[in-house]
Amino acid sequence: MTDYYCAYCSELVGDDDEAVSCDLCSKWQHRICDTGITKRHYNQAMRGKKELIFTCCACKENEMEDSGAAQQPEQMEGVAHSTMIDASEELPPLPSITFNLEFSLGTLTSTDTTAADTTGVEPDDNYDNTENTNTENEPDNAPAYFDLSRDGPTLVQIIVEDPLPDAPLTDTIIEDGEIRYEVVEEGTERQKKKLVSSDGYTYVQKQKPTARSVQWRCSVRRQNLRCYACVNQQGDIFTAGTVKHCHPADGLASKRVTLNRDIRREAVRDVHQPAGTIVEGLMQDVNQQGDFNLPKPSTRARNVNRARAQYRP
Length: 313
Prior knowledge:
The protein is α+β, with helices and mostly antiparallel strands. The chain is about 30% helix and about 10% strand.
């Protein structure tokens, strides 16, 4: 049995491989080895539905070399013919052009140069204009003269603007105002007391109050954020602890606590009134124009329904 090798990859062409035979040299070449034949066309040719005309890669290279060698002499012959000039042809004579230019470089004395620098552009009244008069009376065919002398240096005035002075720095230190505290009854969700400060923080009771003092801790106690700021109350005197808050303040903290308390009271007082009506009316009374970070009415409406759920018949 004769073995056939691919003309492109030099690998053995097996019985199950897809290969085509060259029409010129009868060498075999795998279909996937740069033949340009798709699988669909190959299958159609195998069924006899289509005829394949194929030339292997080696024969293609030989054809390209032969065509290049044949074209090279023809190109060289064309170049030689294109550069040949028939000696019998007479070229037209070139036109004769005569240039007659005379340059006169006028010399300036040191006195004239000094006068030109000091007097500027305007000439003196005693300036002799004879040369200009003679030039105007010359005929048209007279030789032209060009004065290539240069004037003195041009004075350029540089304008320098003084920058505006910086505004003076103020040495006024704005001191923090006195922090005021307010105890809101039924301020928490469980209707307990809640302490609200004027700087935007809220507190709840840390432990059971005694006869002499009450300990308040910050109401921010979430899973990923716990604030340990405290306030000590003795009568009407509130003293902040040394631990600072670890979260930003809320400028509407007092309004939020008051609004939640009023919503719960109104929800219990009239259990048949729509929750949206209660929230809308109270928010218009509490909030003012220019307030930002307002509470969502939908959240407040859920608080209304939660507060009066046990009072509904």
